[in-house]
């Protein structure tokens, strides 16, 4: 009987933990993401969607802008997970690669810009604790992490371009290189 009771308590605790996480998100990350989404859409409306589309189309033609500059600016200004919303302005062909680059950048920029992905700051701080125990400055590590991240995130986006092209050929599909937004 004790086993059944323990199982039932564990089962209920699983859902209680899920509910606690949900309530925590509702008072922290969900309002933040909602406000960032409203700000981004307001910004787009003020500038004009046509201008944003034009800028996005021009930016996607340059691989460095597409996988270095746009993810950096998006992560810095919108933070994680809102950086991914800029993928809306990417042609279908480049969305997987942009996502790969932006997702990686949310991690490699944490040392110098902790606001980008504060939920995972513990990863950088874990590495940094070893550096500080050696008597080395943490800022140097953060800058190097950012610079190496920029290069590797670019490479990740670019390699994903090749992977996407391979899958296109394999599946017999052709993804558009033009930005198409549904209003």
UniProtKB/TrEMBL annotation:
The keyword Transmembrane helix applies. The chain crosses the membrane at residues 25-44, 64-83, 145-167. It comes from the Bacteria. This is PTS glucitol/sorbitol transporter subunit IIC. Pfam families: EII-GUT (PF03608). It comes from Corticicoccus populi. InterPro entries: PTS_IID_sorb. Keywords: Membrane, Transmembrane, Transmembrane helix.
């Amino acid at each position: 009987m004790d086993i059944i009771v323990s199982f039932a308590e564990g089962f209920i605790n699983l859902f209680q933990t899920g509910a606690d996480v949900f309530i925590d998100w509702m008072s922290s990350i969900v309002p933040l993401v909602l406000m960032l989404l409203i700000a981004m859409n307001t910004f787009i409306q003020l500038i004009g969607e046509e201008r944003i589309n034009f800028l996005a189309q021009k930016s996607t033609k340059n691989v460095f802008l597409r996988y270095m500059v746009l993810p950096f600016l998006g992560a810095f200004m919108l933070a994680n997970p809102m950086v991914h919303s800029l993928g809306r302005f990417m042609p279908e062909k480049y969305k997987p690669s942009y996502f790969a680059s932006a997702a990686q950048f949310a991690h490699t920029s944490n040392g110098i810009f902790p606001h980008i992905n504060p939920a995972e700051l513990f990863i950088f701080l874990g590495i940094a604790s070893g550096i500080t125990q050696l008597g080395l400055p943490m800022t140097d590590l953060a800058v190097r992490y950012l610079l190496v991240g920029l290069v590797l995130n670019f490479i990740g986006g670019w390699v994903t371009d090749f992977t996407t092209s391979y899958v296109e050929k394999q599946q017999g599909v052709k993804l558009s290189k033009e930005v198409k937004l549904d209003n």
